[in-house]
Amino acid sequence: MEFTRISLHPSLNEWIACYWMMYSDDTVPVVEKIIPDGFTEIIFNYREVYQAKIGDGWRLQSPNLLAGQLPVSSASVRFCSL
Q: Which stretches make up the DUF6597 domain (predicted)?
């Protein structure tokens, strides 16, 4: 899995903490523990969407969401806390 954090233009520092991208070629879903970090993120998946493990099965999530989860392949904007 590749993770890249991208710096932004200084004029956006008041509103956006960073941009980030994550990429993985792994096609097998894995359970990943998500630890809340207090940031709001708008996530845009441009490949496979999240799958949430619910009980004994997997359920597809929305391809674009407002959350704090880490996707398999996505681009995101992390907003500064106010």
A: 9-69
